[in-house]
Model the fold of this input.
Amino acid sequence: MKFLKSALQNGFTMVEMSVALALTAVLGMVIYGVMNYTNRQSKIQTENIQDLILRYGASKVLVRDIANAAPTFNYINIKDDDNLPFFVYSQNEYCQPAAACSRKFTMEIPANNTLSEPIFFLSVKGGSDEMIRFGIDPSMTFDGSTNSYLGVNYEKVVDSTTGISKDIIPESPWVEDRIVLLQSANSFYDCSSTVNTFSPDPAGNCNVTGTNFATTRQMKMLGKVNSDEIDMTFYAVASRPNLLKNKYNICRPDQNLNCVINPNTANLTITTSKDLIENMPYIPGSDNLASITPVELIRYHLERPAANSPDTKIVLMRSVATIVGGQLSFERAHVLMSGIQSIVFTRKNVSNPTIEYKLIKVRYQSAIK
Done:
């Protein structure tokens, strides 16, 4: 008791105080480290969960656009990583050799840049009550006596109760100012669209078999329904005049499987619905009706705020084209998700229209200190 009383009276020595403070500091650092680690792991898990939600949300939109992208093939003109037409679709022959048949388009931002090369899809966009394809009878478009072209929906002029307007046929996509695709029902050999290039080939230098054969494709024109709902107008894409593949060299194969170009469709450029309907070849005994499909032109690209921004700041952007000043221009893009380092789009064979994609995401853990 005497010793305890003495210790209480004299207090702690400086050495004892230093040891006590040191132990407290060490204990505090341990506790702080554990809490910091816990917070960091919690943040990682939270970001991974958010990334997962965004990934599946973005994937759902992308899958929907790709699933509805049938009009894209043999019309959107972009090159893949090997400078081959990515959207060429061979319906008439299996592509051989296999080395030239696959396609890969890698969307990534080059070093010291802020934007990637974009990819485009022409995707069907119709309401639940609209037909995906709506046939146009030739009697709607031609004068019966002179055989001259009158307009896609000229019947409306003759009789306001007939024609293809939505107020007459509720399931019709023919609506003022709507973007639609006019196309032939049948496909034709086109020497401007071969498996290795979309560049027009001179007459006689093209055939329907071999390593770079002419593919068969529909005649197509993307345009907007005019305000009078009688006809439609073609619009080029701003800053990308060659994006829409609207040049044709339609041919018929001879006995040697060489293309014989029809003089009326040599280097034909489709910029009006009149061009398409008047030059659409007729196949005896076959349905040669044109059709309209409601579509939207979609652009995807990757973007980062600045050239030196970390990969975690890269975002996947989606935008839709509208008519601005006589051209198709893309509206303000919307962010689908962040942290995507690249997207690889592939086609195993151009004889199959299937498009697959793979998202290469950034590892968030490496960015958290």
The radius of gyration is 31 Å. Residues 128 and 171 are 9 Å apart (CA to CA). The mean pLDDT is 82.
